[in-house]
Write a structure and sequence with these properties.
This is FAD-dependent oxidoreductase. It comes from Actinomadura monticuli. It holds the Pfam family Amino_oxidase. The chain is of the alpha+beta class. The chain has 3 domains: 172 residues, FAD/NAD(P)-binding domain, CATH 3.50.50.60; 161 residues, D-Amino Acid Oxidase, Chain A, domain 2, CATH 3.30.9; 106 residues, no CATH class. Helices cover 32% and strands 18% of the residues. It contains 17 helices and 24 strands. The protein has a 7-stranded mixed β-sheet. Strands 10-2-1-14-24 form a 5-stranded parallel β-sheet, covered by helices on one side.
Length: 587
């Protein structure tokens, strides 16, 4: 029988411990240089997830090199329009799509606070500000709904806007039959009270169109509840979009509007071009901490030996190839690029990664319209709800805190209308073709026509043709005249029904390979800046575990879940396991 010591630890355990320490003393002690040699990390991709991973790693003492094929910042970056700056002005600024920061983002804002900017107490975070005015535009002579601009930049909320908004609210309230409104409220309550088990086990496999029972409903119900909430907001088609994903986004928006689980206002924008307001200060900070950036280097293959990744093969724009070694590798590329690295040797180490080939991408790209004047009747942001291409737009003069004609272009561009085109597959109203089958010039004319169809359907003039100075389409879109269609070098991963099972964990079965990117499993569960940032944090935490690092784990914020609903969700978990419907699923 073991005799306890005075602190309750047996003498036998003390003897065992003493023996173990003696044995350890006979083993070689790793040198500081050997320990340091295990801290080299290659981050493959310099977009949102790659920069987030590099940020967390370098602050924990790792030696980080970021390899990026195109430009740092990924889809969030600004894209200067080469040759447009005259007289000492900077080039006009293009975008893959304008930057929008919902209030429920928590991980991205945390990173932004930690990027120092001279004069900003909260770093880059202070370059965000609340969106104060928006217009939900309808066509067919229907009145729009306009939220007031209390910022002082929009000239206040005039009587005409008030009249239009009140009329629009009444019209929209009457457009959807009461029984359909009740149905949608019921579906929202069902989702809010559904357990995680039901969301993943049932709603993940149900299309949003089916979940909200849009078939046979009114045109406005289908346009607003089914189509706009999917194609307009998350660039997925309502017939194949996962209810788990669309429902989670809807819940997050509603809760953040109530101030629950929110970092700030329900919608925020940057006060300048993305690179100037965010990406450039970020890269400068990381470079100052020791991160190395190698831009123009495409990760072509991962080289495997002894069950680990030993190096990455890189190719530059001239076709020159080389290899780069590291101890740890984080793939932080979009899914279509990450798939290219999954050689038979890599898949032999982690066969589950084969499922990445089943993930789906769609197009959501930007178009900038450079204007000679600031148009009347457009606030900070406009949703063209009935547009076939699901267009949303922001007016830069209402967002940026800088003089556009004095600072950019040739001095004749006074404003920029920056568009996101979310649906590239539905025929337009001018040429009768989807955006994918339109030349760049046709894309511009079609988008202009769809906006006029909403803004000028009551007889006013908002977008006269002489307003347009020039335009810039996301260069990821490449037109092939012979084929009569475009290709897209930077598509967006979308959450189709049942796709969760095909998405990887941050830690793979390859001992020194980790996955980051907006397609990795995250709480946000959507291809967004927030999802990419969260995945970069999760990949770093997995690497810290694998490396046995004593560094503090990276904080990760999941989507907020109201604790007041825990009881109903626990009940629903029991009902789901018993094969029963949600308690409120009665309609």
């Amino acid at each position: 029988m073991n005799e306890p010591t005075h602190d309750g630890v047996s003498r036998r355990r003390i003897l065992y411990g003493t023996a173990a320490m003696g044995a350890a003393a006979l083993l070689p002690v790793p040198s500081a240089r050997a320990a340091e040699a295990k801290r080299r990390v290659a981050v493959l991709g310099g977009g949102m997830s790659g920069l987030a991973a590099a940020h967390e790693l370098v602050e924990r003492g790792f030696e980080v090199t970021v390899f990026e094929r195109k430009a740092l910042g990924g889809k969030a970056r600004s894209i200067p329009v080469a040759g447009t700056g005259k007289g000492g002005r900077r080039d006009l600024q293009g975008e893959h799509g304008f930057r929008f920061f919902p209030g429920f983002y928590r991980n991205v804002p945390d990173t932004m606070r930690r990027i120092p900017v001279e004069g900003n107490a909260n770093g880059v975070h202070d370059n965000m500000f609340p969106l104060t005015s928006t217009r939900i535009a309808r066509n067919g002579g229907r009145s729009d709904i306009i939220t007031p601009d209390f910022s002082g930049s929009g000239g206040g909320f005039d009587l005409a806007s008030l009249q239009e908004t009140l009329t629009g609210v009444v019209e929209q309230a009457g457009a959807i039959p009461p029984d359909e409104l009740a149905l949608f409220v019921n579906r929202f309550i069902v989702y809010m009270t559904s357990s995680d088990e039901r969301r993943l086990g049932q709603w993940e496999n149900v299309p949003w169109w089916e979940y909200v029972r849009a078939e046979g409903k009114s045109r406005d119900y289908q346009a607003i509840v089914a189509r706009f909430l999917t194609r307009g907001l998350v660039a997925v088609k309502e017939e194949v979009a996962s209810t788990k994903t669309v429902g989670a986004m809807g819940q997050a928006f509603v809760l953040s509007g109530l101030g629950l689980g929110a970092d700030g206002a329900i919608a925020r924008m940057l006060n300048g071009p993305t690179n100037e307001a965010w990406i450039d200060p970020w890269v400068d900070y990381l470079r100052g901490r020791g991160v190395r950036f190698e831009v123009g280097q495409t990760a072509e293959a991962l080289e495997v030996s002894s069950g680990r990744i030993t190096s990455v093969r890189l190719v530059d724009g001239a076709g020159r190839r080389r290899t780069a070694e590291a101890d740890w590798f984080i793939s932080a590329m979009p899914v279509e690029r990450a798939r290219a690295l999954l050689s038979p040797d890599v898949l032999a180490l982690d066969p589950s990664l084969e499922a990445l080939k089943d993930l789906h991408t769609e197009w959501m790209n930007g178009l900038q319209l450079f204007l000679r004047r600031t148009p009347d009747g457009i606030g900070q942001e406009v949703n063209f709800m009935d547009s076939p291409w699901q267009i949303t737009a922001v007016l830069q003069s209402k967002l940026w805190d800088r003089d556009i004609p004095a600072g950019y272009g040739d001095g004749n561009v006074l404003d920029t209308l920056s568009l996101d085109i979310s649906d590239w597959d539905t025929p337009g109203i001018l040429f009768g073709k989807p955006a994918k089958q339109c030349s760049p010039a046709q894309v511009v004319k079609e988008a202009w026509a769809q906006m006029k169809d909403h803004l000028e359907d009551t007889g006013r003039s908002v977008l006269p043709d002489d307003l347009l100075h020039s335009w810039f389409l996301d260069p990821a879109i490449t037109w092939d005249p012979a084929a009569g269609r475009s290709s897209n070098d930077e598509p967006l991963m979308v959450n189709t029904v049942g796709s969760w099972k095909n998405r990887p964990h941050p830690r793979t079965e390859v001992p020194n390979l980790f996955m980051a990117g907006d397609f990795v499993r995250t709480s946000v569960d959507l291809a967004t800046m927030e999802g990419a940032n969260e995945s970069g944090r999760a990949a770093v935490n997995a690497l810290l575990d694998a490396a046995g690092s004593p560094a503090a784990k990276v904080q990760v914020w999941p989507l907020y879940q109201p604790p007041e609903l825990d009881g109903l969700k626990d009940l629903d978990a029991h009902r789901f396991r018993a094969g029963q419907r949600n308690l409120f699923d009665t309609m």
